[in-house]
Hints:
By secondary structure, this protein is mostly helical. The chain has helices at residues 2-29, 37-59, 68-71, 75-110, 122-152.
Amino acid sequence: xxxxxxxxxxxxxxxxxxxxxxxxxxxxxxxxxxxxxxxxxxxxxxxxxxxxxxxxxxxxxxxxxxxxxxxxxxxxxxxxxxxxxxxxxxxxxxxxxxxxxxxxxxxxxxxxxxxxxxxxxxxxxxxxxxxxxxxxxxxxxxxxxxxxxxxxxxxxx
Length: 157
């Protein structure tokens, strides 16, 4: 899974970087802008952004302001705080996922197309649904791991 995520994210970064490079060269050096390049770059950029968030969720490396950890001394208190954080994340995430599901259904029904190349925007819109589902999966797995570690105790963590 780690290797697949690394290859996918690296590929998307390379695609976006290459698209931006082509755009800079053609637009500013050759003075010939490529029509629709921004439109095509929107899709890998959206997927890169969303899958980057999924990767942070998978690695459990989201940016956090864990101020309470400063005042908590025991490993058990840290674990309980992590569990509370994961539960809150899951509640909010599931709530947001219901909104994203409504948006995905709307996007499927309306089937909008990009203005220049007529690419269905659904292919970018669905990234949000895929990302939310994967982030909720990883949050649930981290929650179960934290609960398991709390039950086992600090010596087994």
